[in-house]
Amino acid sequence: MQAEPKKSQAGNAEDARPPAESLIGREYEVEVGPVAHGGHCIARTEEGQVLFVRHTLPGERVIARVTEGEEGARFLRADAVTVLEPSKDRVEAPCPYAGPGRCGGCDWQHAKPGAQRRLKGEVIAEQLQRLAGLTPEEAGWDGTVMPAEGDKLPPGEVPSWRTRVQYAVDEDGNAGLRRHRSHEVEPIEHCMIAAEGVSELGIEQRDWSGMASIEAIAATGSQDRQVILAPKPGARLPIVELDKPVSVMRIGEKDGGTHRVHGRPFVRERADGRTYRVGSGGFWQVHPKAAETLMLAVMQGLTPRKGDTALDLYCGVGLFAGALADRVGDKGAVLGIESGKRAVEDARHNLAAFDRVRIEQGKVESVLPRTGITEADLIVLDPPRAGAGKQTVRHLSGLGARRIAYVACDPAALARDLGYFREGGYRVRTLRAFDLFPMTHHVECVAILEPAEKGA
User: Fewest CB within a 10 Å sphere: which of 188, 363, 374, 392?
Assistant: First the structure.
């Protein structure tokens, strides 16, 4: 009989090592350093351990309480629970639910609006330099983050911009919002950043026992209002009586699909003079000015010509494809690619008047090579938060496009992909940044690229 091999001394020592001590709840007095991507700033303990601290601003001195992490961890997460030396950019958070351990929906309620935009600009600049090796000048960017029309408000005032709000429901049936990096629910009576069309439904005043979540949608291109209910397993759907007429959808317990209960299974949005049907759960920009703002930035950057061939990748319900089709005319052609089945149905409906527009369903990295397309004049891509990735960028770089418009909701993914485009022979002609998510750390960018030799 063969004896079991003996464990090495190293193995025994490793097995006997006690688990690292949790540092949750420990407090440190720290000097706060620069802003970082993710809605927090960087600080260090006296021992040199990195802290990602929320609810603070660069240059402040605070007491930071650890919310995640253990001894020996690469970094700790923390909240600033006491501000010893405040920044001149600090204001009293207008929202009563903002602050350590409370609602996780907003990151910068405690910062003046102009400071929020500067912080976002610093994050974009840092990501461009670190991940793409680009200075703002090399990216054709003046360093500013522009507010949306109507959002430039004095400190202490909050724009009501969020036209789609996902409410969670606590054990008592109260609607609320998730706490930061938590499944716990913060019950609320009113969300300050919710658009008027959402707030007027009165969702926070109802009992939602048996529901796991409620999504409220208020279209800006029409008076359409919709709620999407996700019941807990085995729960019955309530009779929905809200303060304004709404259509009601439900998430199926077995298939996870969205099913109509009553009313239209879509809302109608407007952009570029056209109405777009957006099905339940379909993507549309959340800020009421975002679709028009981004569409104009893309078209101004691309300058389409009659007869151009264009690609609209991750096309959703067809916002950019429709704008391109208008501008390239009957002699031009537009191909849109989108993975979501419902979004493809909506895009085909929305763009049915254009004979030279085709919408294909599937992942871009799979569908695009199958199309046999070897060249295009213009390309728009608006990928999900993770970005397009090296494989897709490499493919796009080989199509010889005169200009490429990259719409990005994540500066890190944008910077990585811009680096891949540079490897593929493209340079950034211009970059514009828009604050379409006030009070949060999110920011939208539009980069216009062209062949590097053109800009040499």
Answer: 374
What residues act catalytically?
Answer: 409
Any known ligand binding at 204? no
Structural domain containing residue 250? 164-268
Instruction: Kindly state the helix (H) or strand (E) to which residue 75 belongs, with its residue range.
Output: strand 75-85
Do 76 and 131 lie in one domain? The reply is no
DSSP per-residue codes, 311-339: EEET-TTTHHHHHHHHHH-TT-EEEEEES
pLDDT tens, N- to C-terminus, the chain (456 residues): 444 444 445 455 555 667 889 999 999 999 999 999 999 999 999 999 999 999 999 999 999 999 999 998 999 999 999 999 999 999 999 999 999 999 999 999 999 999 999 999 999 999 999 999 999 999 999 999 999 988 888 878 899 999 999 999 999 999 999 999 999 999 999 999 999 999 999 999 999 999 999 999 999 989 999 999 999 999 999 989 898 999 999 999 888 889 999 999 999 999 999 999 999 868 899 999 999 999 999 999 999 999 999 999 999 999 999 999 999 999 999 999 999 999 999 999 999 999 999 999 999 999 999 999 999 999 999 999 999 999 999 999 999 999 999 999 999 999 999 999 999 999 999 999 999 999 999 999 999 999 998 654
Q: Residue 449's closest CA among 391, 371, 412, 396? A: 396
Report the predicted TM-score, pTM, of the whole model to 2 decimal places. 0.93
Q: Please check if 338 is assigned to a binding site.
A: yes
223 labelled ligand-binding: no
198 lies in the same domain as 337: no
Q: Which of 268, 296, 316 is the last residue of a domain?
A: 268
Confirm whether 105 is domain-assigned.
no
Task: Write down which residue in 70, 90, 110 finishes a domain.
Answer: 90
> Domain tally for the chain?
3
Where residue 339 sits, what CATH number does that domain have? 3.40.50.150
In the 3-class helix/strand/coil scheme, how is 264-281 assigned residue by residue?
CCEEEEEECCEEEEEECC
Strands (E), 317-425: 333-338, 357-361, 378-381, 403-408
Looking at the domain assignment, is residue 16 inside a domain? no
Does residue 141 sit in the same domain as residue 210?
A: no
- Measured over the CA atoms of residue 169, residue 175, residue 179 and residue 181, the dihedral's sign is positive
Q: Is 200 labelled as part of a ligand binding site?
A: no
Same domain, 337 and 427: yes
